[in-house]
Amino acid sequence: MFRFRVIKTDKNSKARLGLLMTPRGVVETPAFMPVGTQGSIKALPPEVVLSLDYKIILANTYHLLLRPGPEVIEKAGGLHSFMNWKGLIITDSGGFQVYSLARFREIRAEGILFRAPIDGTQHFLTPELSLEIQLKLQSDILMVLDTCIPYPVEMEEAKRLTQLTHNWALRSLEYWEKNKREGRAIFGIIQGGMWEELRKESTQFISALPFDGIALGGLSVGEPREMRNRVLAISTPYLPEEKPRYLMGVGTPLDIVEAVMHGIDLFDCVLPTRNARRGTLFTSKGQISIKNASFKEDFTPLDPECSCYTCRNYTRAYLRHLFQSKELLIYYLLSLHNLSYYGKIIKNIKSAIRKGELHNLREKLLELYQKTDQEDGDGFE
To answer: What is the pLDDT of residues 268-318, one digit of tens each?
Structure first.
């Protein structure tokens, strides 16, 4: 009911094309997954996201636990029905969000004790509870609870947290064996910080377990791009070829291409929609800020090489006016453009793999984005 198949590999890198086959449909990989943290891709209706050819999105266990609560969503028929999304849904376990709220939480051997910042209520999130919540949400792909390791961190602390992730992975599988649902999948998560031996150890440990897919966690937490690529180079040789590989929380167009070259299949990141709300756009000429005063009387499209609804119908001058006036329409228009751009990047990556030209695409994006990337390492909206 849930299968993954590699259909082509790149002769010049570890990049690959694949098919993620599920009861709800097929996802061609590499694939980017827009982030709908609270059951919504911010500013965009689900049918618009589908029209941009996205087949899978990410939602978050932590936020949906706090509101409206998994019981409400279960009564609605699951998250797909609740938010009117026709594609696949992958749900993060909540581990990264708890990591991001350090002053509200305490990591214990059994799980994570935390206070909700919205109302101060206390919760204890365990590996088993995280999966129970995700089953109530009726996610297509469930993520196990892990401990995201900050950067920088001492090796002993990284080792302790990685061991917790391993222990929780085993507990998650034990729970899953008793409660799993037909047609749904569970992914394990690799940790290890930026320490080479810990990354190897974690990759080998998680990859040996009977997960349906493998995720690389603990990246996009403020580390330099070169360090992230080194961790990928260390980890991917130990990943099973026959399972989908998911790099969590990454990233910019350049980040994605470089990770694809290391053999990664799936990505999620808040950047296209978050940057849009901040007025930063991805374009064929690199990143631009719609707040720039030079656009006040610029009556050309946002990106002359883009055919999205925004670029076909509105000028930079009008978009700047909307942003400066804080008109709500601007968030829809800019978010639509950025997700359209990311969709085009993914199509270009697939085409480049087929033609053996991925290195050329990487060099082009390096020239466009090496000076303007704005990744902040905060992976939720």
So the answer is: 999 999 999 999 999 999 999 999 999 999 999 999 999 999 999 999 999
Query: Is 268 noted as a catalytic residue in this protein?
Result: yes
CATH of 3-269, one of 3.20.20.70, 3.30.1360.40, 3.20.20.105, 3.90.226.10: 3.20.20.105
Residue 372: predicted pLDDT:
56
H/E element holding 31?
strand 31-34
Residue type, 156: E
Catalytic site residue from 140, 146, 212, 268: 268
92 is an active site residue: yes
Q: Domain residue spans in the chain?
A: 3-269, 278-359
Residue with tokens 């493998």: 214
**202 class by beta-carbon count within 10 Å (0-12 exposed, 13-18 middle, 19+ buried):** buried
Among candidate residues 92, 146, 255, 303, the one labeled active-site is 92
Question: Which residues does the chain have with pLDDT short of 70?
Answer: 371-380
Distance separating alpha carbons of residues 246 and 30, to the nearest angstrom: 10
Q: What angle do CA 121, 122, 123 make, to 5 degrees?
A: 120
Number of H helices, E strands in the chain: 15, 16
Neighbour-count burial for 273-284, b at 16+ CB within 10 Å, e otherwise: bbbbbebbbbbe
Strand partners, 59: 91
pLDDT at 378: 46
DSSP state of 145: P
pTM (2 d.p.): 0.96
Rounded to 10°, the helix 225-235/196-207 angle is 50
CA distances to 167, 191, 293 from 163, in Å: 6, 9, 51
Taking CA atoms, 101 is separated from 42, 106, 165, in Å, by: 21, 10, 18
